Amino acid sequence: MKVFPDDLLYSREHVWVRVEGDLATIGITDYAQERLGEILSIELPEVETEVERDEAFGVIESAKASIELISPVTGEVISVNEDLTDDIGIINSDPHDTGWMIVVEMKDQNELDDLLDARGYQEFIVNEMEAD
Predict the structure, then answer these.
(1) Under the phi-then-psi rule, with left for phi > 0, alpha for psi from -120 to 50, and beta for the rest, what region is 14?
(2) Model pLDDT for residues 85-132, shown as the tens digit of each residue
(3) pLDDT of 33-75, one tens digit each?
């Protein structure tokens, strides 16, 4: 059973966002990690890097695929999850909590309006699977 925490927002690129003030913690969804399978490596930006909404902020590689991680917001990276360097598997085991990837100080909170809530994301996945 896939998990869709209600306190998160979701992008159509299978990235989640946890909003606290003007900070956005970002990671990949449980659905995305499940589709990717065992994650082998990840490339993330350095702290102080500017990320743009709808543009790649990193790359994740699994046994099945290599995909770009698409940022749901614009802003400056203020933190990177260093724990992923030591244990990449936490993305698979706990994608919505300890498996977070970056924290971005958002430039425009209105960008969040385009994201989905948990129910909307679930519906999006169902429609995507039916289209496959």
Answers:
(1) left
(2) 999 999 999 999 999 999 999 999 999 999 999 999 999 999 988 887
(3) 999 999 999 999 999 999 999 999 999 999 999 999 999 999 9
Distance CA 41, CA 88 (A): 7
Report which of 105, 109, 106 is spatially closest to residue 78, judged by C-alpha positions: 105
Contact 28, 95 (CB under 8 A): yes
Instruction: Note whether 102 and 26 are within 8 A (CB).
Output: yes
Domain assignment of residue 81, given as a range = 9-131
Count other C-beta atoms under 10 Å from residue 100's C-beta.
22
CATH number at residue 65: 2.40.50.100
